[in-house]
């Protein structure tokens, strides 16, 4: 099968050591306070530009005990735990190698485990976020 060089995207490599970690000052206004608080704990996020295949992706690293409050996104999400783990509010404990499919609009949140957590997020597009207060069931 022949490929047209003009039409075929090239393979792109994104190495963790070279990813640009986000500056919380560049977070959207509604998330700036949360992003600055997170950065103060050592939590960080690096967007991965996957323009060649039209996906939105990011790597997240959170320290032990860090809580991601209940929230939802406007796009479907695949979350892959790469290292460490977390306890999902109202759900299972996740460890390295676990994957979670989160439909758009579904609320979820979690607390990073004793070793912290590194996870990959993949979405079909950049997405809005809506943060909510946890219910008693989610705590």
Strand segment count: 8
Largest β-sheet summary: 8 strands, antiparallel
Number of helices: 1
Order of helices and strands: HEEEEEEEE
Our measurement of the CA-to-CA distance between the termini, rounded to an integer number of angstroms, reads 54 Å
Specify the CATH homologous superfamily of the domain at 45-131.
Answer: Jelly Rolls
Helix content: under 10%
CATH architecture of the domain at 45-131: Sandwich
What coarse outline follows from CA principal-axis ratios? globular
The CATH class name of the domain at 45-131 reads Mainly Beta
CATH topology of the domain at 45-131: Jelly Rolls
Key terms for this structure?
eight-stranded antiparallel beta sheet, single chain, Jelly Rolls, 139 residues, mainly beta, 1 helix, 8 strands
Plain-language structure description:
This protein is mainly beta and 139 residues long. The protein has a domain at 45-131: Jelly Rolls (Sandwich). It is built from 1 helix and 8 strands; from the N terminus they run H-E-E-E-E-E-E-E-E. It has one helix at residues 32-41, and strands at residues 44-50, 55-62, 67-73, 77-88, 93-95, 99-102, 108-123, 129-131. Strand 1 (44-50) and strand 2 (55-62) form a beta hairpin. The longest helix is centred in the N-terminal third of the chain and has 10 residues, at 32-41. The termini are far apart.
């Amino acid at each position: 099968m022949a490929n047209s060089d003009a039409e075929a995207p090239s393979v792109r490599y994104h190495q963790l050591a070279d990813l640009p970690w986000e500056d919380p000052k560049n977070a959207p206004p509604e998330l700036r306070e949360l992003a600055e608080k997170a950065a103060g704990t050592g939590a960080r996020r690096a967007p991965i530009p996957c323009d060649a295949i039209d996906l939105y992706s990011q790597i997240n690293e959170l320290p032990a005990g860090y809580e991601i409050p209940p929230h939802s996104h406007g796009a479907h999400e695949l979350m892959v735990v790469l290292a460490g783990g977390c306890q999902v509010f109202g759900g299972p404990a996740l460890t390295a190698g676990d994957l979670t499919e989160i439909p758009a609009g579904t609320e979820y949140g979690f607390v990073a485990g004793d070793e912290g957590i590194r996870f990959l997020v993949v979405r079909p597009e950049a997405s809005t976020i809506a943060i909510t207060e946890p219910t008693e069931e989610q705590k």
